[in-house]
Amino acid sequence: MSVDVAIRQVERADLLAVVRIERACFSDPWPHDAFERLLDEPAFLVAVRDGAVVGYIVADRTPNHGRDIGHIKDLAVHPDARGEGIGRTLLRSGLARLRATGVAVVRLEVRESNDPARSLYADEGFEPIRRVGGYYRDGEDALVLIVDLAEWADGDAAETS
């Protein structure tokens, strides 16, 4: 599937579009200042098509005794642009960026009921490690998923060869 978007590092000027997508996608959206605080993260990326931001990923890294851990905090694609592979492209770009900064393992939380996201993450090698009861404001549980980036990169290389 060919995706007609450019992936690049977020810029301050993109934040309004990011917040608008956040509000369109989530029942409990992050405020503008939450994104502003993450501007310098190495894997805060946007997908741009025809000059407009259509999706984003926000991930950070935490040093951990030489085995840095990445955390995907947020990933969203505008509802009008879903089903085109943009989320997968953002996820892969974010994982590659984290790996390039020395991250070994990446984790994330996903709503238990979010089947499309869970399917995407499973396709990319994420595995559930635990459930967190009542994680979301509405009381829904989250699943914590992890992926080993060395294994992910090996799988990705095998897929493209």
From TrEMBL:
Q: Which gene encodes it?
A: rimI
Q: Name one GO molecular function term.
A: protein-N-terminal-alanine acetyltransferase activity
The record's PROSITE patterns line, in alphabetical order, gives: GNAT (PS51186)
Do you know which CDD domains this protein is assigned to? NAT_SF
Instruction: Write down the EC number.
Output: 2.3.1.266
Q: What class of enzyme is it?
A: transferase
Q: Does the keyword Glycoprotein apply?
A: no
**What is the name of the protein in this document?**
Ribosomal protein S18-alanine N-acetyltransferase
Q: Output the Gene3D superfamilies linked to this UniProt entry.
A: 3.40.630.30
- A Gene Ontology term for the protein's cellular component: ribosome
Check the record and name the InterPro entries matching this protein.
AcTrfase_RimI/Ard1, Acyl_CoA_acyltransferase, GNAT_dom
UniProt keyword Ribonucleoprotein present: yes
Q: Which residues form the N-acetyltransferase domain?
A: 5-150
Alphabetically sorted, this entry's keywords are:
Acyltransferase, Ribonucleoprotein, Ribosomal protein, Transferase
Matching Pfam families, A to Z?
Acetyltransf_1
State the organism of origin.
Halorubrum ejinorense
